[in-house]
Specification:
single chain; Rossmann fold; disordered N terminus; 426 residues; alpha/beta; 3 domains; two-stranded antiparallel ribbon; seven-stranded mixed sheet
């Protein structure tokens, strides 16, 4: 089975497998599924602990229809069969988590994960393609220029372009090109796809994985001559139950409380639409809501609204018994405005950095009349940014998952236009 990882944070707060905002500490895992349109891999399991359970994984020759089984193999043989792989899936399926987990296991030299042992001799590098695209448009440069910048800014590793080229040319490198779908302009997406394929042509020792959502991939699909394509499937009913049990094994220490809540939670989950509960991200949000209220909403909107309230307010006041008072009054409106501003900035190809984020929030608070004093507004902004980080909502100049960016941006658009419509009507 393909395992979707979950991580814990220094704050002790567990969110979901998609919300990895710090150096991950291994938390708990649940099994996920992949299907492929080529004859490779039918079963896999990330297993280095008793917390993992073996389960079946099926791959089909065509991921749009289950026409028949392909050659069944363990997921650990993934790198044995293909040098270049595309992993596609729905929002919240665990694409970026798959990448981060793989990198951790390779760097940890965990020989239990991949059967192709030579993969542990590869240098793994993750490139977020929307960041690369912004850099490319600004500097008219390619991956060979961007990788030294990435190493410098994120890891404080200083390499010249010449040394970078020498390493990639002479040593085994595994590059994860993450988030092709996060490049919104189709022409720019095509250009980045071409950059990837040209880069791989120049450096034949490089292996690669590209991730994308469905809706953005088919328009600019990678070369079928080079790439094998896989899809991450939603959980099935057994995997949902497995996830719930593993989530509670970390979340609740009392066996009696844990068993009682698991039983009730699974009963309520039977009433939730499969589209919601079978998605790893949404399931993690549902469990957060249930944990706080012992009740589960049944609509996607209610889940996001409830989860936002849970993350922002309920966990501190009800569970941790903390009385946190922020200077910012309307927290949700700030997140919504920030999301729309960031979405618009990235769509226009403008780089989003810490100073820009801080400046936007500060002026938004002043414009909305929350503060008039520049210094107090500055303090409130810093406090809000730290709050967003500790709640695993916004970190390192981005929302911890694209789904939250979309939710808050939609919230802003609805509030803005509905509010103006009401004013005009009155």
């Amino acid at each position: 089975m393909f395992v979707t990882p979950n991580f814990s944070y220094d704050s002790g707060y567990l969110l979901s497998s998609q919300h990895i905002i710090a150096t991950p500490q291994l938390g708990y895992y649940t099994t996920g599924r992949l299907i492929s349109d080529s004859e490779i891999i039918s079963e896999s399991l990330f297993s280095n602990s008793a917390i993992y359970d073996t389960a079946n994984l099926r791959f089909f020759e065509n991921y749009h229809s289950t026409v028949g089984f392909s050659n069944e193999k363990k997921f650990s043989e993934l790198f044995s069969e293909a040098e270049h792989i595309v992993v596609i899936g729905k929002p919240g399926a665990g694409k970026s988590s798959f990448i981060k987990y793989s990198i951790c296991k390779i760097l940890e030299n965990d020989l239990n994960v991949f059967r192709y042992k030579k993969i542990y001799n590869y240098l793994p590098i993750r490139i977020e393609l929307h960041k690369y695209n912004t850099y490319k448009k600004k500097s008219q440069c390619g991956f060979l220029d961007y990788i030294p910048l990435l190493l410098k800014e994120e890891y404080q590793i200083f390499l010249s372009q010449e040394n970078t080229s020498s390493i990639i040319k002479n040593f085994n490198t595994l590059i994860f090109f993450d988030g092709l779908d996060e490049i919104f302009d189709i022409h720019e997406r095509v250009s980045v796809r071409n950059d990837i394929e040209a880069f791989l042509g120049l450096y034949p020792k490089v292996r690669s994985i590209v991730t994308s959502r469905f809706e953005s991939y088919e328009e600019v699909s990678m070369s079928k001559r080079l790439f094998v394509k896989h899809e991450i499937l939603d959980f099935n009913e057994n995997q949902v139950e497995e996830y719930v049990n593993k989530w509670y094994s970390v979340e609740e220490s009392s066996t009696d409380i844990r068993d009682k809540e698991i039983k009730d939670c699974l009963i309520q989950l039977n009433l939730v639409d499969k589209e919601l509960k079978n998605n790893p991200l949404l399931l993690s949000l549902i469990l957060l809501l249930y944990r706080n209220d012992l009740g589960i909403p049944t609509s996607k909107l209610s889940i996001y609204e409830g989860c936002t309230n849970t993350i922002v307010e309920t966990r501190d006041t009800k569970e941790k018994k903390l009385d946190i008072k922020l200077k910012v009054g309307n927290i949700i409106s700030v997140f919504a405005a920030l999301a729309y501003w960031q979405f618009d900035s990235e769509k226009r190809g403008e780089a989003v950095n810490f100073d820009g984020v801080k400046n936007f929030i500060k002026h938004y608070l002043i414009d909305k009349g929350e503060f008039s004093d520049d210094h107090i507004a500055d303090l409130a902004t810093s406090e809000f940014i730290n709050f967003a980080k500790t709640r695993s909502i916004y970190y390192e100049n981005k929302f911890t998952h694209k789904t939250f960016l979309e939710y808050f941006a939609s919230y802003y658009i609805y509030s803005f236009y509905y509010g103006n419509w009401k004013k005009r009507r009155n």
